[in-house]
Amino acid sequence: MATVATCGGDAVGVGSAVATASKSNVTSFQRRGPRVSGTNDSGPRLVSITGTRPSVRNGQLLVSTGLPALDQLLGGGLAVGTVLLIEEDKYNIYSSLLFKYFLAEGIVNGHTLLVASANEDPANILQELPAPLLDNCKKEFDEDVYNHKTPESNIKMKIAWRYQLLPKMEQIRPVSSSRFGHYYDASKRIPQELIEASKWHGFFLPEKISPTLKVEPCSLTHGYIKLLQFIQNIIYEEGFDGSNPQKKQKNILRIGIQNLGSPLWGDDICCTENGDSGHNLTKFLYVLRGLLRTSLSACIITMPTHLIQNKAFIAHVTNLSDTVVGLESFIGSERETNPLYKDYHGLIHIRQIPRLNNLVCDESDVKDLGFKLKRKLFTIELESGFAFFHSAHF
């Protein structure tokens, strides 16, 4: 098995990660045309797995982010074998919620979870996941929408994406793995029996490293090395590796990494403009993406990019991610008291959408999106006239 060695003598086995990472926009799960009868069936096909569907654009295998409105904005969902980077809001309130939606969707569909964090025990994160909406959710959903109506004068100007991007209420059924994308009640916690029936792996950094361990300055931080080894072991030992197909029924590995790049991970990129750990993080992302490209896995990463002082470094991180979504909270800003934004809690920026199997990334046609966390639901909306104000005053 090939390894990637650091200059400090540490090594992280990543199989063919480096070779596959160079194919920056190609994953291993691509639609195959129908086979002629009598031909050899040994070649790869588009796999059929619970909680997945093929993209109507390129046949790529997709999983839901746990937020159907976001799935639509990303072209139908998150492609298997790719990284979704969430740029955290200032107080890490709403980015944490999107992180939990992604994990909750995995539990509902029976996917295997790998949760990594440097400041919160993964077991505690799972206990805080939102509860899936059941078949009796129609009344609760209607109440949540109508209790937050806007004045009559604003109705004509608003295009509510909760009606454009969400299915009709009659289509919301009990929690079922046959659905792609579920809805969640942010005011309730996921039932304990669902957590107990799920399969998950936790990586809690303080339990994985020794406080007295010394790492060479130019090597990967010990936390990143341990995490890469942990992810690689799960992928290979449990058969998520695309080149070594699972013998049992195929499944998806959902990887969630919280607050990556923060000082808790041993990085100094948030503390100084020319942090020594900048290369550590980019090398980590490069190797991670190589692992994902050849596995039945999808990864979500939250990162406090607002704390990174070197903005050029953010561009490097973006290039090493497939999909990038930024969250901008109004808490503590002038927009919080601005009448124009009274119906919103913040802005969501679709910064990058992957154009898979091509050399360049796609860009979203929709730029001005507001989000609001209501009593039960996280909604994404677009308001006509909002774009004009945004461009005229900011």
Automatic annotation (TrEMBL):
The record, for CDD domains, names: Elp4
- Pathway annotation: tRNA modification; 5-methoxycarbonylmethyl-2-thiouridine-tRNA biosynthesis
One cellular component term from this protein's GO annotations in UniProt: transcription elongation factor complex
GO BP terms, alphabetized: tRNA wobble uridine modification
Q: Which InterPro entries match?
A: Elongator_complex_protein_4, P-loop_NTPase
Subcellular compartments: Cytoplasm; Nucleus
Under the heading Pfam families, the entry gives: PAXNEB
- Keywords from the UniProt entry: Cytoplasm, Nucleus, tRNA processing
Which region is the signal sequence? none
Q: Which residues cross the membrane?
A: none
**How does this polypeptide assemble, per the annotation?**
Component of the elongator complex which consists of ELP1, ELP2, ELP3, ELP4, ELP5 and ELP6.
Q: Function, please?
A: Component of the elongator complex which is required for multiple tRNA modifications, including mcm5U (5-methoxycarbonylmethyl uridine), mcm5s2U (5-methoxycarbonylmethyl-2-thiouridine), and ncm5U (5-carbamoylmethyl uridine). The elongator complex catalyzes the formation of carboxymethyluridine in the wobble base at position 34 in tRNAs.
Spell out the family assignment given in the record's similarity comment.
Belongs to the ELP4 family.
Q: Return the protein name.
A: Elongator complex protein 4
Gene designation: ELP4
